[in-house]
Amino acid sequence: MRIALLAPLPPEKNGIADYANNFRNALMALGVEVVTPLKGTAINSNNVKSVLEAINWHGIDLVHAELGGGRLTEFTALRELRKHFPQLPLTATVHDPERLVWRRERLPFPLSLLERLPSPFPQAAVVLADPMTLSEERRLAQRLNRLITLTHTGADSLSRRMHLDASKVEVIYHGNVHIPPAPLPPMEPLRLLYFGFIYRGKGIEDLLQALANLFAAHPELRQSTRLTLAGGTAAEMAFGVRGNYLQELEQLINDLDLSHAIDWKLNLPTEHIAQTIQAHHVMVLPYRESKKLALLGRQRGTSGALSWAAACGRGVITSDARAFAEEVALGNGSLYRQGDVSALTQQLRTLAHTPGLAQAWADHAQVIGKQRLWSNTAQHFYDLFNTLLEARS
Question: Quick check: 177 and 22 in contact, CB under 8 A?
Fold first, then answer.
């Protein structure tokens, strides 16, 4: 089997690139030949035809794409491939259901004029153009041979919004790398971990405020609870036009009198991720859903950080954003309503006063981690691809 993978790949720094790299390696371990004909190539409506014509697609059995993260390259390539190779099996993992790409490359005239104006006019233009965007997404979704989501929540949401028969959407859980199990560290101090890319919209401010509230109500926990903020700081997100987000977090930490309880591990090398996660008791993911995206649809994806938590055998306290409720419904953590700082404070209080929860969550997480190893995930994809190729024959 020879497949073409259309996806971002390292050294790009984002969760989908990490996922695609693990996906490629796991398939190759099963004997699948995986080529990446678009690696390092930016495709747009102007060059898509010439770029794709330079590739021998007749030597490809199937094309699989990773859709999400605001990227349009893979979406544009799939649309063009379907136009010129109607018999070529095309599949895609949709990382941000219920939509495929959420936005167009270009806004039609006269909405394009609004892009030159200050906020909120560009955002209003995107909303006004959304019926056209949605129509294009549905057209491509209905012409793909199969779409894959990482959760059942995402599959249900995608099927409804794209007007797809449920049988056209497969659920294949996020793969986990194999991490040897490690016992929890000593229960004092209680070690909490935020892990993921550090930028606005992740609810980190909620977590800091909840920790401050916990210490205000229970001063005895000030010296026995620590929080580590670990992960990547992509420059375009952490140092954007709205200022230096890291400095804003540091200022908030000082204002809340939390400096004594915070550790930083920025731009954590991949080889140190597992060790860092296993040095903590529980991961905390306080994500909030984007209010701007809510105008276009519901984001029902999951998180690579949750996959790492399971792989490392650690429980999670998470908000109910995205599809997180499904991801912690197996006894591997607890849930609170996104944006509800009081509820998050209560979750931290319960954990601090019932430390046995951390071990119970870790035990369940370890089971999930074994079930979702990348070798198992790749086998699911291999079986799906084989089914599509047999149907084509």
Answer: yes
Which pair of structure tokens corresponds to residue 262? Answer: 């915070």
CA distances from 28 to 25, 46, 150, 310, 369 (A): 5, 33, 21, 23, 21
Contact between 257 and 224 under an 8 Å Cβ cutoff? The reply is: no
Count of other CB atoms within 10 angstroms of residue 69: 16
What is the total residue count of the chain?
Answer: 393
Q: Is 5 exposed, middle or buried (0-12, 13-18, 19+ CB in 10 A)?
A: buried
Cβ-proximal residues to 58 (8 Å cutoff; 6+ apart), any chain: none
The distance of Cα 71 from the centroid of its chain, to the nearest Å, equals: 13
- What 8-state DSSP symbol labels residue 9? -
Residues 220, 225, 227: CA angle, nearest 5 degrees:
145
Omega of the bond prior to 120 within 30 degrees of 0, cis?
yes
Give me the tens of pLDDT residue by residue for the chain, a chain 393 residues long: 999 999 999 998 888 999 999 999 999 999 999 999 999 888 888 899 999 999 999 999 999 999 998 899 999 999 999 999 999 999 999 999 999 999 988 899 999 988 889 988 988 999 999 999 999 999 999 999 999 999 999 999 999 999 999 999 999 999 999 999 999 999 999 999 999 989 888 999 999 999 999 999 999 999 999 999 998 876 444 334 456 899 999 999 999 999 999 999 999 998 999 999 999 999 999 999 888 788 899 999 999 999 999 999 999 999 999 999 999 999 999 999 999 999 999 999 999 999 999 999 999 999 999 999 999 999 999 999 999 999 987
SS (H, E, C) 31-60: CCEEECCCCCCCCCCCCHHHHHHCCCHHHC
How far is Cα 208 from Cα 265, in angstroms, rounded to an integer? 16
Q: Give the Cα separation of 63 and 2 in Å (integer).
A: 9
Cα–Cα distances in angstroms (integers) from residue 168 to residues 126, 143, 324, in the given order: 29, 10, 23
* Overall pTM surpassing 0.90 (yes/no): yes
139 vs 9: CA distance, rounded Å: 27
Give the containing element (helix H, strand E) for 140: helix 130-143
Can you say how many angstroms the Cα of residue 81 is from the centroid of all Cα atoms in its chain? 26
Closest CA to 287 of 197, 216, 350: 197
The Cα–Cα gap between 282 and 179 comes to 16
Phi/psi of residue 132, nearest 5 degrees: -70, -45
